Amino acid sequence: MIAKSLKGRSAAMDPGIWSKLPPELLELILSFLPLKTLLNLRSTCKHFKSLVFSPSFISKYSSASLFSSFFLLSHPQCYSNFPLYDTTRGAWRKLALPLSFLPPSAAQFNLLSSCNGLFCFSLPNSSSFLVCNLLAKSSRPIQFPFFPFAFEMLTLVSTPHGYKIFLLCSKFSSNYAFVYDSKVHSWRQFDGFQPLLADNFHQEGASFNGSLYFATPEPFSVVCFDLENGKWENLDTEMPRELTFVRLVSNTDEGKLYMVGGIGRNGISRSMKLWEMGDGGNWVEVERLPELMCRKFMSVCYHNYEHVYCFWHQGMICVCCHTWPEILYCKVSRRTWHWIPKCPSIPDKWSCGFRWFSFVPDLYTLA
Asked: Gene3D superfamilies attached here (predicted)?
């Protein structure tokens, strides 16, 4: 009947009908639009612009839409854009993510950290950082605490009221920790931790219960830094035996802390295991990397574990190597291990500088 009634009519929508559509029904219809179309709607009228950013619509849109999530690859030789691997569809995206909206001062930049749809770049030419939402094309420059400023282990952390940036500065005889809070737009300085926390500055801190957790070099231990009061604490927990390297990663949605570590002797890993922090503060073994996959991973990193780093992405613990263009990941719910294939657009001659990030697009996270 509907088809017959529409036969012969103009393809244009009748304003008389659509203007009388109940607001809640209109919101529901719009919530199923593709993200690109939704973004374009913002410029059509003031009503759509305010609607897209309204709390009720955000709730409907986030529950109705199936966003893709991505692994984003940064490399010194893919400077102007970043290849994306769609983890929802299991394929590389043909279109790389453009950065044409960045300010002129971002002509030279380094991608350092990602969290909750935001990315943090360093802009050496302007002595600042740049936090931006690539999807919403919004950004905020943040000046270094002072200049020249040498920093390590920068970590971008999402908070209920925005975000924080943690980093260590070892310019002085005793290092310091700096924390930027987007709520007050200012830096705070705290004491650092001696000795240095890790032998791998590709590894970020693991956000867990309001603190950042780090592994120390041998003898391996775990320390945490309270982001609110700036206090350091050594965890009184027994570490597994025969560790050759340790990396920490957290699932902030479920409040879980994991540890990835190599097991072996004389600094040579013969296996790799995954542990979860138990209720009593002890490490509970979750999974072991299959032998053949372990052999491959140890061969590609040449037992130089300072190149190994880990991060959490949508139910996966990702283990990467700075010198290798693939990702090894464990799907925690299934306790299975897999490889993400090499990006087909990457030349074989690229041998070092691979840095992977979790990218979960979020239109409403403010930079």
From this structure: 1.20.1280.50, Kelch-type beta propeller
Length of the chain: 367
| d(C-alpha 356, C-alpha 340), whole Å | 11
Q: Which of 318, 316, 243 is nearest to 308 (CA)?
A: 318
Q: Domain ends where: 63, 83, 116?
A: 63
Same domain for 86 and 213, yes or no, is yes
What CATH number does the domain containing 306 carry?
Answer: 2.120.10.80
Domain annotation covers residue 12: no
Backbone angles phi, psi at 93, to 5 degrees: -80, 135
In a shared domain, residues 31 and 162: no
CB neighbour list of residue 18: distance below 8 Å, 6 or more residues apart: none
CA atoms within 13 A on the CB side of 59: 4
Domain check: are 175 and 281 in the same one? yes
Rounded distance, CA 327 to CA 126, Å? 33
Say if CB 166 and CB 152 are below 8 A apart.
no
From the list 313, 319, 255, 323, the residue with the least C-alpha distance to 287 is: 319
**Distance from C-alpha of 222 to C-alpha of 216, rounded to nearest angstrom:** 6
Chunk the chain into consecutive blocks of 10 residues (it has 367) and report each block's average pLDDT, rounded to whole numbers.
Answer: 42 65 72 69 77 67 60 83 86 72 70 94 88 85 88 92 91 80 95 71 91 92 95 93 95 95 93 95 95 94 90 96 94 95 86 91 82
Q: Is the preceding omega at residue 219 within 30 degrees of 0, hence cis? A: yes
Q: Are residues 155 and 41 in the same domain?
A: no
| Shared domain check, 149 and 33 | no
The two structure tokens encoding residue 133: 């939402």
